[in-house]
Amino acid sequence: MAFDRAERLTNLLALLLSTPMPLSFDEIGHRLEGQYPTGSSAKRQAFERDKSMLRDLGVPIETEVMGGADAGRTGYRIDRERYELADLDLAPDERRALQLAVAAVRSGTPLGTEALLKLGAGGPRDDAAVTANIPTLDALPVLREAVATRSPVSFTYRDARRVVDPWGVALRDGYWYVIGHDHDRGERRTFRVDRIDGNVQREDGTFDRPDVDIGGLLPADPKLFGADGPPPEAVVAIDGASRAGAAALAELGDDRVITRRDDEWVEVSVPCANVGAFGSWVLGLMDAAVVLAPAAVRTHVLARLTEPPAMDLDALVAIAAERLGTRAAARARVPGATARTRTDQRVRRALVMLPWLAERGSVPLSEVATRFDLSSDEVEADIAWVSMCGLPPYVDEMIDVFVDEGMVHVGVPRLFMRPLRLTAPEGFALLAAGRAAMALPGADPQGPLGRGLAKLASVLGDEDGGSVVVDLARPDSADDLADAVRRVERLELVYWSAVDDEPLTRAVTPRRLFADRGNWYLRGDDHRSGETRTFRLDRIESYERLGEFDDPHDAPAGDAEWFSDGAIARATLAVRERGYWVAERYPVDEVVGVELHGDRLRLLRLAVTDERWLTRLMVGLGADAVVIEPVSWRGVADAARARLAALYGEADAAPT
Known about the structure:
- This protein is of the alpha+beta class.
- It contains 22 helices and 27 strands.
């Protein structure tokens, strides 16, 4: 009898689940005779690979030192209570609410869908009108699980090893942070998760988690990061007659005003605890702002305008030609292009499908195909190989499942009656999606989603709701615009274009409202251009609902790749560490890390809608970035930097 690897993995899993006592490697090989290679070394290697793959699926294979005739040998078994998913007792409307949450929150992974299937809910089918894109990072599930188990963690951050008691993780302004007690510093610290180098390691011991509001520990203003007490302040002169300056003054508020000058410039006090964030903010205002004091902050900003990048451009051109594009090409050549193999996917799917079928007994083939997003032929192929699996000697202990006349039937279920527990990444993906959906317009904390999330959180060790905080900070207009999107009601927008630096009036049929990278966007049909356009909500100066309604699209385009229009020009940049935020704040096609002459850089290719937008970006980056391609844009910001540096000279000469 020939066995493929998926069958062998399923048989091994069935064996370890069913044994009351741990089994040695030799006993496992004997029980699964003929399924492993004959050579001792090859058999051991194959077993270790199988064991590793099952653990990657979330199977808790336990080891212990055996006694008796097998004294000193390692034994293997699976604790069924740790293997099986706890019953969350989700009501139908709660399952449906979690489905809608996963449909509305896009993270670029299938983990939320896989978690839904394990919970007995179908995959997300709805094309939600209001959505959010949130980043996914490998470290997040490890950190969340460490919070739940009160386990210290260690990781490398800015070239230093840190040991931290993690209190929780939070998403704000498009970035994930972990907050906790830093052992070496002896105080609370906040770390950007995307800046953690390498893996996060669990450490021995436990800690007492304080009763704190994780979201409240994160300042809403990035210029305040790093301030433990009252933040230092900078004096900035802002041109109140300009559109950008007027918007900045409105954001700061009247209580920040020091004096209003006769020339319409306004001197204000601005927090600058994080000098880097402050510099990016003030340079983003271009000619509309000048730092007056203190001298150290002013010098820092002026240096970003005048210091040359001092990068080896010729070497960067060669590296970009070699490195950029190779990852995408490699993904295109490898079917599936993920860490999961075809065997992994088949076994994972079977462990979800079998408990669901066992609960129902008989299900139409078409319903199974729809639920698991497969073709009928793929379902039949899965059923065919699963039916060949079971417990040795495979006489009365085969998995009793078969297809007959368009129906999938399950006989007396003996194995895999409960779904496998949620893995840490699956649990995090579902919890994060639910928390993000609760921040979308129209969410009801007391409704089905709130109740379903509470049940999920209790299983994941997050009863107080503090381990995962998602703050989408939606603007006041979001709820009303979301209603217009759902009703497909035409809008008249007065929209400020950062490129043209002037407001334009647009008639728009709204199709989608979504949050992405810390900003909110409205996507719709622009009646002036006849094209689909995306508008940032904070640049909509005013809008009016016109009471005119259009037909909904049968299949509205998703927003996850709203920036990927191939007709938009691209630029290739090299950025130093202080400029890494570009890849996190703006949509990029590709990012490659390199080290050149001891300088740690990232090469990135991004869409550039207009040369003036690129000028603003490069001014803000200062000496931390250069344009590699196209050649015509390498000096795009030179004139603007010189103009701003001269503005600082004029400020020195002007009376205050």
